[in-house]
Each structure stands twice: as C-alpha cells, then as structure tokens.
Amino acid sequence: MPLRLSPKVLLIDPVRMLPSLLLPLVGVLFVGGFSAHSYGWAALGVGGTVVFAIIRWATFSYEILGDRLETKRSLISRSVRTIPLERIRGVDVSTPPLHRLLGLTVLKIDTGASGGDEEAELDGITPEEAERLKSVLLRRAPRPEAQVSEVAVPQERVIIGVPRKWLLYGPLSGAYLLTPFALAGGAVGLVFQWGDDLGLDQDTAWSAGEWIWDHPYLLVAVAVLLVLAMPFVGGLMYAVFNWDFKLKHRDGYLVAERGLINRRSVSLESARVRGYEIVDGLAERWAGVVRAWAIVTGLGDSETRGQLLPDVPRTVAYQVTAEAIGSSQAELRRHPHVARNRRLFRAVFPWAVLAVASAAGIWATGMILWWVLLVVALLLAGVGIPLGLDRYRSLGHGYDGVRVAVRSGSLRRSHAVIERRAVVGWRLRQTWFQRRAGVLTLIAGVGAGKGGYSAIDVSVAQGAAFPAEVTPEWLAPFLASHGTPPAS
C-alpha cells in the first residue's frame, strides 16, 4: 500500500522556508509601519507556508511494487515517477541537524541517469524505514510485496574506521584551506544582496569603499587574518564533514559513512566499481598522506559520492583500497627524458619571460614596480625547477595483467588504477609541440569515473606498445589481415 513521509516533517518544512520568507515579511512590517494589520498579513504569510507544507505532505506517497519504486504527487496535476530497481546505482542516507532532532532521515536514490542530481528523494522518513528501503532498493532480484517488510538484516564488515587524530591532516587538503575566504566572500555577497533592505544604498557603499581605500592597512590586516585562519577554519570544516569516517562492506556494497552535523551514508555497488584513484597535493605528500576515490560506472556526483577515504597515511590507503577493490602490482614505467624537459620548460619559461620584460622596464623607466616584478619572477622561476622535476617524477604508467595504472601531476598528483575490463577504447592525442618533441598523450577510455585517464608525454613507441599489451585482441584482426600472427 502507498506510504507517506513522517508527519514530523511538517515541523521542518516551514523552518526551511523561513529564509525565503524573511525579506518579504520584514518588508510587509516596514511598509505597514508595524501596525496590527501588518502583523496580520505577516501571520497570514506564515500560516500559508504551513498550509502549503501540509498539502505537500498529504499529496505525496511512495510505494514499492514488485520490481519498481513509484513516487506519486497529486497537488494540482497527478505526477507519477517510476524507477526500476535494476537501474538503481546507489542509495544515500543523510541526517541534517533538524532531521536528527526529530529522529528523521533523508534518503536519496541515484540511477546514474541524471548527472549530479538524484533520481528521487524521500525527505522525512524514520531511520528504520530508511534501512528497510535501502535493503530492498539495493537488491537486484524482485521480491513479492508480502516479503518486503521481512527483509533479512544484511551482513556488514567494517573495513576501516578513520581515527579522530587523523583529522589533524585536514589543513593539508587545499580545498578546505580556502574556507575563510569563501566565508568572507559570502558575507560580502549577503551585504550586497540585502543592502537595500538594511538601509545601505549605493552612496553608502561608495563612501565605505573610499574610506577603505584611504586605509589600505585594514585590507592588509584582514588578508593576514584570513591567511592565519586558513589552517584552523579549514581544519574545523574538514573535521565536520569527515567526522567518524567509516568504510564498510555490506551485502555487496561499499558503504562510506561520515559527518558530524549532517551524517551521511553513501552506498556503492561493488560489482560496478572499476578501480580507484589516489590523490595527494604537495603538503599531503610531504606528510605522507593521501585521499582515495572509487571509480564507479553510472555514478552521479562522483567527486562527493565516490570518496573512499579522507586524508590517511599512504600505506593505510593502499591497504584499504587493496582490501575493498583490489591491489595493483604494476610497476610504473618511466616516461622519456624529453618529458622532463617539457615539464621544466613549462614551469620556468613563463616566469623567465616576465623577468626579461621586467628587466626591460627597469632599463626604460627605472620604476620600483619593475624591480618588484623582477624579484618575484626570478623567485617563481627558481621554484619552477624543483616543481618541474617533481612533475616528471610523478609521470608513469603500468599494467600487471589485471589492472592499468597511470599517474601524473604535482600540485595535485593523481594515481588511477583501473581494471582492464573497464577499458573501452584508446585515444592518442598529440599537440604541435608534442609532435616536434616526439611524444604524445595516451588516454585510456573508461566507462566510469572521469571517462578517461591519461598517460602524459609517453614516447611514440610506448604509445603503440602499451595498448597492444593491455588489449592485444583488439589488434589481432588488423595484424591477421596483414599476415602477421597475433601476439600471445
């Protein structure tokens, strides 16, 4: 029979609508001069929001019918969405703060057919109902309706529980370090958005800008404070998102659970996992820690939903990925020395050009600004040398008979390991500069993850031999047509 969301969700919907109603309500009160009539209109608006929430709750239902899930909404026109269970690629369960207070959860269903958006969402069900639905939705075999409520408890095994002391690695992750600047930018945006309602007109903003321009040391002080706050605020946000991170194997699925304020559980079907990607930055590499993502077919929002591990020690990451997905025994092969020269050239040449231009400016004008640019350019050119060498050392590709591995990058180094069966094609790409240098980029086309993983600046011989080694059967018809026996 059709089921409804928990009635407790009626306590959440009006609260979530308040931000969008705040400005109109304040405007009504100001226009009405805070009279009894203005309060009446404001109360009517709040009451209308509550009534709308009740109607939305009363007109929504969901039901599992054999091999499909149906959600129905009949507000003005009747809308029915049908999702075959065999298309479901993942089920996410999260508990935002308000839901946690009321003992509710949000269940999102992903079929891999809608990009980064979920296919369906049940916002406001009990944790017990979420677990029941999760067990049913992630089963491929259709079950009779009479047995839906009697689903056996799936077996679960914890692969790793990330210790809380490892959350101290959070400030090494570059994305979280920018949190203070993002918060400051958001605050400025809110001021511009609500400026008129707060009595801040254009003239006031212009006057404030002129005052700040006359006191530049304040901008410098704010910038310094934001920089000093980067490791603390970034580390705090990292801990909030990755608190009590657990990776489990449950009934044929990899389940990643994390979060302090909003607890989230993401299920990835093991049969659709085609490999993994291990990523680190310069600071993470110096500390010996990495992050890991699963490479999964048909997964929307893979950058968030595919995360297997936050920052953990490198040895732990390889142990976990080997246990959860499979180990790679491939020894990465070096790329030709011309690839090193290209890395050095690209890291140094732009700053060398700036240094030459600055020297010309000094000779022509003698301005102090050119001296500053010259010093900065020379420093960056000097830093570019070890950076270019590190980028070359990071290049590599390999094959162990089961999995293909490619690695590249320095500021963000990525080591992707993909199952051979996931490779659906090869692409050779060669720019004009690569053609003159005698190298090319070999891309393994994969029907999962990013869709392709590149071995950058391999030699022409490597670019021809590596696909023949990994997928020799693809070349056999061409070799046979020329009278050459296929490779064994």
From TrEMBL:
Record key words, sorted: Membrane, Transmembrane, Transmembrane helix
Membrane-crossing residue ranges in chain numbering: 21-40, 46-65, 174-195, 215-241, 344-362, 368-389
YdbS-like PH domain residues: 57-134, 400-462
Origin: domain of life: Bacteria
UniProt cross-references to InterPro entries, sorted A to Z: UCP026631, YdbS-like_PH
Pfam family, one: bPH_2
Official protein name in the record: Putative membrane protein
Organism: Nonomuraea jabiensis
